[in-house]
Amino acid sequence: MTLSPLAPDSFPRLPSISGVELGTAAAGIRKSQRTDLLVAVVAPGTSVAGVFTQSMCPAAPVEWCRRIIETGDGTARALVCNSGNANAFTGKAGEVSTELTAVTVASILGVPADSVFVASTGIIGEPMPDDRVTAAIPGLLSGLATSESGGWEQAADAIRTTDTFSKGAHAPVPGTGASVVGIAKGSGMIAPDMATMLGFVFTDLGIAPEILQESLTASVNKSFNRITVDSDTSTNDTVLLFATGAGAEAPIVSTDDPRLSAFQGALEAVTLDLAQQIIRDGEGATKFVAVKVTGAASEESAAAIARSIANSPLVKTALAAGDANWGRVVMAVGKSGQPANRDKLAIWIGPEQVAASGTVLDGYREGAATAHLALDEIEIKVDVGVGDHEATVWTCDLTHGYIEINAGYRT
Amino acid sequence: MTLSPLAPDSFPRLPSISGVELGTAAAGIRKSQRTDLLVAVVAPGTSVAGVFTQSMCPAAPVEWCRRIIETGDGTARALVCNSGNANAFTGKAGEVSTELTAVTVASILGVPADSVFVASTGIIGEPMPDDRVTAAIPGLLSGLATSESGGWEQAADAIRTTDTFSKGAHAPVPGTGASVVGIAKGSGMIAPDMATMLGFVFTDLGIAPEILQESLTASVNKSFNRITVDSDTSTNDTVLLFATGAGAEAPIVSTDDPRLSAFQGALEAVTLDLAQQIIRDGEGATKFVAVKVTGAASEESAAAIARSIANSPLVKTALAAGDANWGRVVMAVGKSGQPANRDKLAIWIGPEQVAASGTVLDGYREGAATAHLALDEIEIKVDVGVGDHEATVWTCDLTHGYIEINAGYRT
Questions:
Q1: Would the CB atoms of A314 and B407 count as touching at under 8 Å?
Q2: Who among A93, A325, A340 is closest to B57 (CB)?
Q3: What percentage of chain A exceeds 70 in pLDDT?
Q4: How many Cβ contacts (< 8 angstroms) between chains A and B?
Q5: Which chain A residues have a beta carbon less than 8 Å from that of B55?
Q6: Which residues of B touch A334 (CB under 8 A)?
Q7: What pLDDT does A283 receive?
Q8: Which pTM value belongs to this model?
Q9: Are residues B307 and B338 located together in one domain of the fold?
Q10: For chain B, which ranges sit under pLDDT 50?
């Protein structure tokens, strides 16, 4: 697979997180011989939080994770993730496979099965080869290594499907000795054949589970929920956040703790970085596009308008061509159904203002807009003239490459 | 422009509608020298009904029509429609242009301005050359012809933009001497550069305006609102229905009139035929696709699920490739957010059942499904297992041709 033209230069150097051990294996779930299984074992007492797909037809592992978070005590001991098979639309057998995977890990580690989180990504509707997973687990668990930079990259690599590069990010938590590290995969917002969005984030801070969940939900809303490749939604999307508490810092047990906002900032930086890397790996993408909406009635409304623009096939094909077709932007604002004042609408393409007061600006220079659209990283800004809230959504262009990748026969 | 491979063999022979006179002209609104202006003058006492775009940023003519329907007495005397310029996002000047057009027609005909309906389709955000419209109107009005088959085709031709063929349809009203005739345009569900969906339908029955509006709303919900090319929504979408009452039949003034259901059937046949012709002219379309959802909680829910499948870029690219990728169908059911029982889900590709009880069917023959997908006209059926309501949405595949048409520079 050709590396995305928008890929970062290299995988970042990621710090070790105390209380996280990693292992990967080539278990033979994928057809090609490459790593396809990741295990992360976390220290006793690790808090966990999760955000999952909105799909009404979620995969078995999503239902498993959701259930053990709802019924559990907020702690986790391990994560198992395979690529190559999504274990989605696999009926009762899929549920059994997921449980078998968790139980296998739990019995070797001597921990409860409901402390083992499971995620899968890959082809939909094919039986999960759980015998290969369970056969690989003992070796994996006996060969775990502490998390250090090479280990994170191997972990990120094991969960890839159509991704053209491995995705990792980190941020220190200012004023503490702790860090946040995350890995992710995703390239189409989903190609159910092979893709889905997974994000696994770890910190060595200790944080009470209910506080951790609020932190994760808030940060996902500003990152993974603000990106779109093709508007499609996976059956398997999963973001999990583990707080091991194995670092030197005392745990955060109150929302009054001043370190919480420092942690939140670091978490948001990591999730946004990972989310933007997914866009940089969008199927067929040649441009990284920020769509910023200002002047909206609420932040949610601003995000909905930005998403309408970012999802519009007509806007996305115009961007692919470098065509300053702002009429399509107006169309997409209109179709969002959100409050907008047509006669106050203003549009910018990069630094060039195109329209004001609901019509094209006198002196608008199409050449300047076209020059901006020739860049790899572009910005569309729209002020909808009804309030003072704003939001940004990130997307990519819609190209022949997308059709090429997604209109191929399954092989 | 190459004729769509899904185009009908020919424009249908359409009957004359008493009380409708037609005229077309090349007014120079479009860059190329071709007809771009249509006037239809209807008999005194003609009832009118309309359905318009849901866009929050509608074009000036849409606002004009909406207003004269709301404030008027339910009758109309003329329709003026231009192609080449949408008069959308043109600020106050756009409103003045629309009114000027209506007033010009009204003053020559000696009728109130608010009995003259205006529609526009074409490029967004460029000033409307209303001087060319008003200059062409006197000649047009002095040269009107009764509506007969050739006239309908010319009328359908004058409102085309990116359409590769003219669209017309008709149906007799059983048990009466009356007919319903309609013309339409549209190829992308919208390409705001040049396209939008317009439908103009005429009958020689007389029908009270409030009854006519109910009839039109019901029939649009089952036809124009059940098609999608690319999920995008025009600023200009307009469907108008005129009932001249100039035929031999007594008017329908009560919903108890037994002829009303016959009329409704004819109207629905005409609007569905026109809507399906728009799909047959979908930008880059190579396949005409019916997506049928059964077993839903309500008809609206069934339609929402069908629309989610029909709009999914991943489903549409798979159909373009003839790939029986039913996993993407599951994904699209899931992302609709509508009630569905994953473990009762059943899927058919043409006559071949693919999945039952939430997993792939034993004995499913992928070859048979692939053979169906090689046809020009294909059907995807999904039973979501929660109720007994159903709906069908029509769409087309997503091909390199769509990218080609929409990623070109404006010229």
A1: no
A2: A340
A3: 97
A4: 229
A5: 331, 334-335
A6: 53, 55-58, 233, 235
A7: 84
A8: 0.87
A9: yes
A10: 190-194, 409, 411
Q: Spell out which residues of chain B touch residue A161, defining contact as CB-CB under 8 Å.
A: none
Using CB atoms, pick whichever of B125, B234, B406 lies closest to residue A360. Answer: B125
CB contact (8 A) between residue B124 and residue A191: no
- Closest by alpha carbon to A393, among A324, A295, A294, A291? A291
CB distance B208 to B252 below 8 Å: yes
| Residue of A193, A197, A232 to mutate when probing chain B, most B C-beta within 10 A | A232
Are A166 and A272 found together in one domain?
Answer: yes
Measured between alpha carbons, how far is A38 from A36 in angstroms, rounded to an integer? 7
Residues B240 and B338 in one domain: no
- Does residue B211 sit in the same domain as residue B102? yes
- B272 with B308, same domain: the answer is no
SS3 B353: strand
Q: Quick check: B190 and A331 CB within 8 A? A: yes
What the block records as the tokens of B306 is 């069908």
Q: And the tokens for B315?
A: 């489903």
- pLDDT tens-digit readout, A64-95: 999 999 999 999 999 999 999 999 999 899 99
Chain B residues within 8 A of A399 when measuring between CB atoms: 403, 407
A219 & A251 share domain = yes
Query: Which whole-number Å values give the CA distances from B350 to A254, B25, B320, B372, in the listed order?
Result: 58, 45, 15, 6
DSSP state of A114: G
The answer to whether residue A24 sits within a structural domain is: yes
Helix-helix angle B91-109:B130-142, to 10 degrees: 20
Interface predicted TM-score (ipTM) of this complex, two decimals: 0.81
- What is the mean predicted confidence (pLDDT) over A336-352? 95
Q: Give which of A123, A117, A124, A102 is closest to A57, Cα–Cα.
A: A124
Q: Is residue B369 part of a domain?
A: yes
CATH of the domain at A175: 3.60.70.12
**Domain boundary residue, one of A280, A311, A344:** A280
Q: Is B196 a catalytic residue?
A: yes
Question: Are β-strands A377-383 and A288-296 bridged in parallel, bridged antiparallel, or unpaired?
Answer: parallel
Host domain of residue A374: 288-406
List B176, B196, B286, B399, catalytic entry: B196
pLDDT(A372) > 90: yes
A2 assigned to some structural domain: no
B148, B153, B156, B158: CA torsion to nearest 10: -110
What are the Cα distances from residue A167, in Å, to A159, A164, A190, A291, A348? 10, 10, 16, 22, 31
* Neighbouring C-beta atoms of residue A42, cutoff 10 Å: 26
What is the set of active-site residues of A? 196
Q: What is the pLDDT of residue B188?
A: 64
The helix-helix angle for B209-221 and B259-280 (nearest 10°) equals: 40
Q: What is the per-residue pLDDT across A245-269, written as a single tens digit (0 to 9) for each?
A: 999 999 999 999 999 999 999 999 9
Inspect the interface and report whether the beta carbons of B332 and A232 lie closer than 8 Å.
yes
Q: How confident is the model at residue A188 (pLDDT cuts 50, 70, 90)?
A: low
Q: What is the CATH number of the domain that holds B385?
A: 3.10.20.340
Number of domains in chain A: 2
Do A121 and A177 lie in a common domain? Answer: yes
